[in-house]
Design brief:
Structural class: mainly alpha
Strand content: under 5%
Helix content: 55-70%
Largest sheet: none
Distance between the termini: 39 Å
Number of domains: 1
Number of strands: 0
Oligomer: single chain
Shape: elongated
Length: 97
Amino acid sequence: MRIDGGPTLADFDEFTIALTSALTTTANNPDKFARFAKRVLGAEAASADKRKTLHEALERTARERRQYLAENQSAVPYGYARLDAFGRIFNTALATI
């Protein structure tokens, strides 16, 4: 039985840290970005304008993820099956005020 909104046994914090690291590394490493652009853009990867737009979007997303991690940093690691959804949503809402 699947319960929507139910907790996961994953380590959400480590996942977001690894995802942010991958986004940042891909944005900053020309070889990785070239492979990424080819997979995302396909035949349009030859277009300098398309690559530039993709790179800007990737940098923006990586920057937003780093900010998200900074806003939600905790002295106590979250670990498996812990997700403080209220705290993370609350922190995000406060940042926009």
